[in-house]
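Internal ticket - ligand job 338, flavin mononucleotide:
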Amino acid sequence: MSIRSERKEEHLKLAQMFFNKENYNSFDQLNLLRPALPETKVDPKILTTSMFQKSVAAPFFINAMTGGSPQSKIINQALGKIANQEKIALALGSASILAKEKEQIDSFAVARAEDPDGVLIVNVNPATPVAAVKAIIQELNADALQIHLNTVQEVAMPEGDRDFHWLNQIKEIRDQVEVPIIIKEVGFGLDQATIHTLKNEGIQYFDIAGSGGTNFAQIENARNPNDVSYLEDIGLPTVVSALMVQKEDVNFIVSGGVRNPLDVLKGLTLGGQYVGISNVFLQEFNEHGEAGLADLIANWKNELAALIAVYGKTSLASLPEIKKYYDLPLKNQIDQLI
Ligand SMILES: Cc1cc2nc3c(=O)[nH]c(=O)nc-3n(C[C@H](O)[C@H](O)[C@H](O)COP(=O)(O)O)c2cc1C
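stdout (structure tokens):
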């Protein structure tokens, strides 16, 4: 196995090892006001929405994780099947490996083969050569492209990038690809100034991927002979990052630490068009297989529809109207930053 494939397999093992379903995070400090008499009725059909000009059955999706290794291929095939069955979008893990190891394409293409008409999002790092990015989009018939910004992860890796001049490369990719571009973090959150800069460069979609769930400082620390555990707490919490991106009036995805349908609802009330889930879905797959994850997603749809009715709403568009209030530690951060 190549170094890159091996790294992905290690990430998969460590993401499982460190997974903690009960992790407390910023969603716990965001509260929603609920009418005791909502005068609504549960209707899962209201979850149907559009994403990159295709219809999806829910505003949440499986976010970027796998590709480029043997285990990734097994997982991507299952995720493709589930995305197809449940009619939700799927983002694949970084395909930058294909710039150097073309033979790894199968580990990504299996997902498209299982879900030929669904919303499939591909993912690269910002240093990926434009020609490779274009080939990835074309070969996987991708509906959108995620470019991940992951400085903290890179410095936590002994073999990681040390040059973070990424803007020109992002602009070049922007000029040459035809699908929508989503700029995403990997669990440390996007700040408002970065979103503002990229918005001025014509980027229209952002995936905040804030802290509170998968922690790549922790994962890389376990692979690093040096102790870099001090990096584990420097992320921007998902709720804070969402409130920042909200100010910039752009389309955005809320992700990072989403554990259940209530977190999905909270992400939507923060103004996210969609909510992305990574490790919670991956660990359900690890524990209960393809059928288990498909069931979980079907349940989340029903439970999200039920929650929307409980909170007195009848459409996705009206969810940001739900009154939000914050526990003091989170309110304190918001007051300082926003
Ligand atoms: C095993 C694993 C692999 C990941 N690989 C990628 C990747 O290749 N590209 C990327 O942008 N994000 C990657 N991520 C980050 C996720 O897309 C997401 O931003 C992060 O895990 C936070 O979401 P979560 O708390 O729901 O897991 C990966 C996450 C996990 C758990």
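Auto-summary: The domain at 3-17+41-337 is CATH 3.20.20.70 (TIM Barrel). The chain has one domain: 3-17+41-337.
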